Amino acid sequence: MKATLWGTRGSISSSGREMMRFGGETSSVEVIDKSGTALILDAGSGIRAIGEMPRHDRVDILLSHLHMDHVQGLPFFVPLLDPDKEVHIWGPISTTERLRRRLSRYLSPPLFPIYVRDLPDVTFHDVVPGEFEIGNFSISADLICHPGSTLGYRITEGSSSLAYMPDHEPALGVEDFPGDRLWTSGFALAEGCDVLIHDSQYTDDEYQGRLGWGHSSTTHLARFAELAAPGKLITFHHDPAHTDAMLDVQHQMLGSSLESVELIPGTVGLTVEI
Fold first, then answer.
1. Is 0.85 surpassed by the pTM of this model?
2. What average pLDDT does the segment 212-231 reach?
3. CB burial readout 124-152, b (16+ within 10 A) else e
């Protein structure tokens, strides 16, 4: 399978005019297996580019959670309005409302002129932690540490595996992180995977003033990656206030902290074979 990053939550230009190497779109990743089956991980603004390439009759969208930067692209995803396309939207279960109802708050006036009931062929799936299959993909979902009901995913095709945790604060409440790996948020999903796509939002200094906000610091990400031992680590969910130059420095610091994991800076348009 292969994965393409269409939205990494972006960076800003230092001058307001320069091209942004890391990208300015919010979270969305396309995963395609050998048969052409497609999964889309999250529906940030980056999903628009996927919808402009109508190569799939069925599309499955796996939402990690329902924060705005992960669903804001849904109304502009062309297949959602195409009666010839079959769209399935999967997202974390809630103790209060079904996924369809929660997304209806956004896909309705006054935020959007079209109601969910107007969409021609969309099925909603409330995901509980556990395992399920979509086509040739075997998927494991589990709750991870982030405000609200948030899922991390491990996607497997044959012997290839990808773990996706775009918003994740594994060190929250742990004095000596990482501590016991079996009790570390997200460890079971990431352990030994070929590719780990993971939250890398804050520098260590920034994190000190943002505990509990649901994101990782550079040092915590390095420690989590060394603990889980993926083959490759792709950084994700860059702070939108960071310039490309700032992200370059952050990646240099992260790379110097990794001993056994290959680091790949996450940029829009990046494709990796898994």
1. yes
2. 97
3. bbebeeeeeebeebebbbbbbbbeebbbb
